[in-house]
Write a structure and sequence with these properties.
Layout lengths: L16 E7 L4 H10 L3 E3 L2 E7 L5 E7 L4 E6 L1 H8 L4 E4 L1 E2 L2 E2 L4 H12 L5 E3 L6 E5 L8 E7 L2 E8 L4 E7 L4 E5 L12
Length: 190
Amino acid sequence: MGDDLEVGNEASAVKRCWHALYTRPRFERRVRAFLEQKQLLAFLPEREVIHQWSKNRIRKIKEPLFPSYVFIYVSAKEQTLSVCTPGVAYIVGVKGKPSCIPDDQILSIQRILNYGYDPEPYEYFEFGDQVEITCGPLKGIRGVFIQERSRAKLIVSVHLIHQSIAITIDRGQIRKVSSAPPPKVRANYF
C-alpha cells in the first residue's frame, strides 16, 4: 500500500471511490496503519519539514499535508469498516451521507508528490482562474492560478474537505481553462 497509489477507474463489479476520513488530531499515521491492516487502500499525503524545538534540537520530520485527514479508496460496504477504525472521528460527507472525492483531485496530489515537488499547505480558494499545466511531468493537472509576490503558484484543492496545496510554477507552462466566477453581490435593503 503506501503513498504511491495511483488508482484509476477499476473495471471491477464493486464501485469504489475516494473518501476523506476525519481523524483525531495527530492520529493520521495510526489510522492509515489500522486501515492497511484491514486491507483497505489508504493514502496519507505527507511533506518533510524542519522543526526546531530549541537551539540544539533541530530535526527533519514528516507531517501530513492535510492535518486530521486520511483518504481511502473504498466501496460502500467498506465505508463502514473504515469508520470503525480506532482514531477515525467520521467520514466526510453532506447531510450525513459520505461524499466521493473526484479521482483527478487525489491523482493530482499523488503525481505532485511522486515527482518530488514540495507542496505546502495553502489557504482554500473558491475564486481565481482555473488553469492547466501544459508541459512537463505535471502536464494536464488543473488548479487555480494565483500570483504571490513575484512567484506564480498553482493551487490544487480537495473541495470536499476544504483543503489545498500550492506549488510554484513557471507562468509559461500553464494555460487558462476558465475565468474566475464573478464576485457575489449582496444587495442592501433599507
